[in-house]
Amino acid sequence: MTVLDTTLDARTPGYLEARNATLDRLDRLEAAIEEARAGGGERAVTRHHARGKLLPRERVEMLLDQDSPFLELSPVSGWGTEFPVGSGVVTGIGVVESAECMIIATDPTVEGTAVNPYAVEKIRRAARIASANRLPLVNLVESSADTPAGGSPPGGGIARDLSRLSTRRVPTVCVVFGPTNGDTAYLPALSDYTVMVRGHAKTRTNGSKLSAAADQIAEDERDALRLARQCVRRLNWRKCGPPPRAFPPVEPKYDAEDLLALAGLTADSREVLARLLDGSEFDEFKPALGTTVLAGWGELHGYPVGVLVSSGSPQTPADTQKAVHFIQLANATDTSLLLIQRDDRGALGSGAVDALAHSTVPLIALDTGRTGDPRFAFRWPAEGPRAGGDDDGVIDPRDTRTVLGLCLSAAHSAAVEGAGHVGVFRPGKVDQ
Fold first, then answer.
1. How many CB atoms neighbour CB 52 within 10 A?
2. What residues have CB less than 8 Å from 323, skipping those under 6 apart?
3. Minimal CA–CA distance to 323: which of 364, 353, 358, 300?
4. Nearest 10 degrees: CA dihedral of 151, 153, 154, 157?
5. Where are the domains of the chain?
6. 40-233, superfamily in CATH?
């Protein structure tokens, strides 16, 4: 392995300005996250607690193993739209009885969740992530009392996505805490195991009750979460992918604080990798071929990873040749891919995009949207709010290594298998 060197520090031109700009954007992001955590507002939350009921994040916390992390996805979906920030749904990955699970928790204090297109997309995205990464899905469901029972939200398909989990033998557990309306009523109806809270749980869609017989009846919400943990425990779930190559992993040699500045600087992409990869070690692939694509091998939290960075100007044929060959090798060696785009003008060429489309190893993307249909896609803070739903959340650059590590661990719940031959690569000639 080659240890990356760095020349970046606070004396670098533009460093402090870029760092401060990123911090300002993070302040705005944190304000939006606090708005999402507030749910339907103080009055609705007080009324909900007065009934002896828990909020969605309280339910998630009680479900998870003690002191285990929770990677929340798209926490501010709907930001900047007519719909509530967070869309009235909490989704994310956490550990339940030592098994990494996808968790969906609807917020009954937020009105209109069942007719919110962002909520529907958030639930569907969570189901697709669970399917692709072989993560048991735990639904914690309750609708707003003010939500109309009739009418399906635009962009439905929740039932179809849940059915795919069943065909891929990914188990689903659903806890029903109260009434469920609209498409969210399909969550208990299509789950493998259903727990209902006595006297509170009801399922209804389009004015008709759904058949969702309870496998177990809980006496209260805490008992329901205990039974859900028991269901997950009895799955005897095991990862199919290989464990980390090294544990504990070696930390990068350079401070993650520098990523605050790098998020806004036009700097060498190796500066970013030096603050993400284990030991800041990176074996560059074909360094003499092409100038706008950086490719190479490293480890992140002990997991082998192939890194592909697109930056600067549009790709040349040589860049495309390098990218396609690298994607082929990642598939041939069953190595997960990390795709980073450092500039809006530096998108991958069509040949590389086609190779990614045929790639089957886990793909995690940073600042690219969903190029290549990644298992996970995140962004660093930009000038304005990003509410388009083309990623899984805006993250603090300093948290990037942790977030990517959690994603790689989740992806290894499934077998890490490459397609073998991806695209067409012939030395000296590139298919455009």
1. 10
2. 293, 295, 308, 310, 315, 348, 349, 351, 352, 355
3. 353
4. -110
5. 1-37+241-432, 40-233
6. 2-enoyl-CoA Hydratase; Chain A, domain 1 (3.90.226.10)
Structure token pair of residue 331: 């598939």
Q: Same fold for the domain at 1-37+241-432 and the one at 40-233?
A: yes
pLDDT in tens, the chain (432 residues): 799 998 898 999 999 999 999 999 999 999 999 999 999 999 999 999 999 999 999 999 999 999 999 999 999 999 989 999 999 999 999 999 999 999 999 999 998 776 788 998 999 999 999 999 999 999 999 987 654 444 444 445 788 888 889 888 999 999 999 988 776 777 888 899 999 999 887 766 555 555 557 899 999 999 999 999 999 999 999 999 999 998 999 999 999 999 999 998 988 999 999 999 999 999 999 999 988 899 999 999 999 999 999 876 678 899 999 999 999 999 999 999 999 987 766 578 888 989 999 999 999 999 876 677 899 999 999 865 457 557 899 999 999 999 999 999 999 999 999 986 555 444 444 443
* Helix axes of 317-332 and 350-358: crossing angle, nearest 10 degrees: 10
Yes or no: say if 63 and 98 are a contact pair by the CB < 8 Å rule.
Answer: no
Sign of the four-CA dihedral 124, 63, 107, 221? positive
Separation between Cα atoms, residue 262 and residue 22, nearest integer Å? 9
| Cβ-count burial 101-123 (b if 16+ within 10 Å, e if not) | bbbbbbbbbbbbbbbbbbbbbbb
- Asked if 277 contacts 259 with a C-beta cutoff of 8 angstroms, the reply is no
Supply 56's token pair.
């969605």
- Both structure tokens of 234: 């009895």
Comparing CA positions, the residue from 321, 313, 311 lying closest to residue 288 is 321
Please give the CATH number for the structural domain made up of 1-37+241-432: 3.90.226.10
The upper half-sphere exposure of residue 157, i.e. CA atoms within 13 Å in the direction of its Cβ, equals 14
